[in-house]
Specification:
- By secondary structure, the protein is of the alpha+beta class.
- The chain has a single domain (10-196), classed as Beta Barrel (Hypothetical Protein Pfu-838710-001).
- The chain is built from five helices and eight strands, in the order βαβαβββαβββαα.
- An eight-stranded antiparallel β-barrel has the order 1-5-4-3-2-6-7-8, surrounded by four helices.
Length: 206
């Protein structure tokens, strides 16, 4: 395998389960989770001209997010676009990766820059997401086109020393929500779509 040197960044510690949302919504309410917002997301994933991301376990995407409703401070824009790089797994048990992300002002120009550098659109992942806050973690109810319903629980840490404790607490919160921490899925939505033969490689204008 081609090994990739990734600059230091935030570590995203994430656990994910395939589960219908009804009972989880009830548990979130029962334990006092705060509903934050609901959004739709359209992620365009790119192949790199200089290495095979499937081989190196990396991901590079351009995300368009639209806020459906806002239950927080009302400060989120109605629409935002972000460029995100996700590095290889550093801890498979919790799907922990290094992540670098930035908001872009003009998604059309961002796409033009990326594609001018030789990155090619590979697939699209579309989701409806509702975010909750619970004990400092983000709990997300996802409905993914072509896949169904999932629950994610995640947080970010700034050093690899913090990963085990963050992962263990995420497992405890999954149990609190009535989910089995041993039934988590380590494959990304993009990977699940490819496995299901449902990844959309046709990328229209953003």
């Amino acid at each position: 395998m081609h090994h990739v040197s990734v600059p230091p960044g935030v570590y995203e510690v994430e656990l994910k389960c395939r589960v219908e949302h009804g009972d989880v919504r009830d548990r979130l309410d029962a334990v006092g989770a705060s509903r934050l917002r609901a959004v739709t997301q359209r992620d365009v994933y790119y192949d790199a001209p200089h290495r095979d991301f499937a081989e190196t376990d990396e991901a590079f995407r351009l995300r368009r997010e639209r806020v459906v409703d806002e239950n927080g401070d009302g400060g989120a824009p109605e629409r935002v676009s972000k460029l995100t790089y996700k590095g290889p797994l550093v801890e498979a048990e919790s799907k922990t990766r290094t992540e670098h992300e930035t908001v872009v002002d003009d998604e059309t120009e961002a796409r033009a820059i990326v594609e001018s550098l030789g990155f090619e659109p590979a697939a699209v992942v579309e989701k409806e997401r509702t975010f909750f806050e619970l004990d400092g973690y983000t709990v997300t109810l996802d409905s993914v086109s072509g896949l169904g319903e999932f629950v994610e629980i995640e947080t970010t840490v700034e050093s690899d020393d913090e990963i085990p404790a963050a992962r263990d607490r995420a497992r405890e919160l999954l149990d609190t929500l009535g989910l089995d921490p041993d039934e988590t899925i380590r494959t990304s939505y993009l990977g699940l779509l490819f496995e299901a033969g449902a990844a959309d490689g046709t990328v229209d204008a953003l």
